[in-house]
Amino acid sequence: MSDDESSTASNNPTTNPTEEEITDLSNSDVTTKYQEASKIVNLALTGLISQCIPGASILEICNFGTTIINTQCAKLYTKKVNGVNVERGVAFPVCVSVNDVICNFSPLGSEELEPLKAGDIVKLDLGCHIDGYISVAAHTLVVPESSADSPPSSVDDELGNVAVAAYNAMLVAAASIKAGAKNTEVTDIVTKVAKSYGVNSIFSVRMHQMKRFVIDGVKEVALRHPTADDLEAGEQKLDECTFEQAEVYAVDVAMSTGDGRPRPGVLRTTVFKRNVEANYRLKMKNSRSLLQQVDKKFPTLPFTLAHFEDERSAKMGVTECQAHGLLTPYPVLHEAKEAKVAHFKCTVLLLPSGTARVTGLDMPDYFKSDKKPDEEIQKMLDDIAEAAAKKAKKKAAKKKKKKASSS
After folding, report:
1. What is the average pLDDT value for the chain, to the nearest integer?
2. pTM of the model
3. 367/160 Cα distance (integer angstroms)
């Protein structure tokens, strides 16, 4: 669901009422804040991967990631602006979704699931913001045989196909989101990738424009064009839009060896976001208390009920808040039990120099596929790999030069 862009004004801690602030990438300070948030996202994601071992608690993994984000954010932008602290911290709760669970699972302390075991397919998802400027990422991995073991050397063909498809789709989608291009063109490309690898995109997952304090912006990209059956099932056809320079997007791709249609499961929805356009006089004390805390701590960005001290009260209050549209849920999405699911996400900045992918880690080497995309997609992937190699070489040379000058 999209946020009204005007909602950001009331949550903008550094706005000077006598001077309109530039809050897109044409402002170099804004670009820096996105980049700093991106570094924290990648650091947290790297740390989370190290925690995904047999016997690990999902709740503890989520808490570990949250701690990294909050600790790193606390080191930055510590000076007040116009007498107000710069807001920074979690922009999307750390979620750890296992096997057929697609995304959005962030457990409560009282509802912890069984620990991770070797061979589990884990999808990590998180976001960080600096002054409301958001970076997000998601990653897929397989739990090794033991904490001391290196990652698996290979995985089964089905999992390899869907992981490679999702990752490659993310790469080419990110490269295709550039000034002047249209969202339908990106959907076409993602659809091609999925078809090449014989998998299906998760039809309810979408890419979103992000703005200051807005994680689900107005401009969206579907992973596949809805069929007549999809429309009948309630899926909406997105309006066509054009990307513009200085915009920011979350490139979110989830794919499955199943039919790509999420279904309800037994896991409780714990991630919500305040609907800033809705107001209602709540009747229950627990509901009023919860909403008051949300308005104070999480006025615009998603949160998890695990962030509240009184978990029982929060669980009781969220029902009435949701029923009257005050909170928008991020339901835990499931695929069929036998399906393999992969989820990758990155953040891209549409800069004057071109599209820059600033979050997301490399796909694990053990994900491989014998299937190949068509010539157009392969050419794009080759160009992306070549550009990444040049960037890495340039970075290494710069590091070497710096080291030599300091010795």
Report:
1. 92
2. 0.92
3. 5
